[in-house]
Amino acid sequence: xxGQIIDGKRISDxxxxxxxxxxxxxxxxxxxxxxAVVLVGEDPASQVYVRNKAKACxxxxxxxxxxxxxxxxxxxxLLALIGRLNEQTGINGILVQLPLPKxxxxxxxxxxxxxxxxxxxxHPVSVGNxxxxxxxxxxxxxxxxxxxxxxxxxxxxxxxxxxxxxSNIVGKPVSLLLLRENATVTIAHSRTPDLPALAxxxxxxxxxxxxxxxxxxxxVKPGAVVIDVGINRLETGKLCGDVDFDDVAQAAGWITPVPxxxxxxxxxxxxxxxxKAAKRAHGIG
Length: 285
Ligand code: NDP
What we know:
Layout (H helix, E strand, L loop, with lengths): L3 E2 L2 H21 L5 E7 L3 H17 L2 E7 L5 H13 L5 E4 L9 H7 L11 H9 L7 H11 L9 E5 L6 H10 L3 E5 L6 H5 L4 E4 L17 E4 L3 E2 L5 E2 L4 H4 L5 E2 L7 H19 L4
Parallel strand pairs: 1-11, 2-3, 2-4, 5-6, 5-7, 7-8, 8-11
Antiparallel strand pairs: 9-10
Helix pairs in contact: 1-10, 2-10, 6-7, 6-10
The structure holds NADPH dihydro-nicotinamide-adenine-dinucleotide phosphate.
């Protein structure tokens, strides 16, 4: 193994300490960031995510409320709840846990969230602002990827970044953020020919695919930074990324493990967005 490990847990802990300090300063001014999390149905993974978000709020001194709705909740009722949360002072961020049950139009729900409270960064106006380079609440996992790079001294500026994956929640926004950080960005996907040859050109290789251990050592330029966004559960129950860690670590200069790389950053960036939204709501920052 030659690559240095990018320790997402440690970096995430550092950012949470920074958020905690700022939250304490806001508390002295009578301001407390507030997050509302909405969960429809009983998907076990979603329940864990929601619990972790509420716990993170508690640890940081945020106010939080969790709205648990039955799986057969109508779209109308869900939209009515979002309407109330949009108006509720004390709630700075609204997160609707995805995926939603099939009878609910996910897009209609995301569109209904006030842009100012869109801490997931999925609202079309937030996406548009990201695209044109205006200030906006950034999608959490992609923002976490950029923090990992910057906080390990791996500035994207002037680098060739290859992003494998073009989803709206990871591949596209992470590409836009890398571009904003002055990387030269290539986006690859399932129709990209000779992906290994393309990946080998990357100074920064981001894998957001959902295929366990797809990226091998011979896909990686020696010394490249490899960021693995993938979270895949193997038949053994173990988690693994889209990168064959043990193999690729022999070539990479820097590499994120799974778990313990990008994963811990997602909730931390959600907290960071909630803090930012709270500050904005009070005309700070
Ligand atoms: P999607 O399934 O929405 O997108 C996957 C992308 O990978 C698509 O653009 C697809 O191409 C591309 N792709 C699929 N197979 C191949 C292949 N063999 N070669 C090249 N490209 C391929 O996934 P997400 O973006 O939502 O998630 C990606 C991974 O990241 C998943 O493992 C997910 O669990 C994880 N994830 C982790 C998060 C975290 O907090 N760390 C948060 C969100 C996701 P095409 O568009 O052509 O179909």
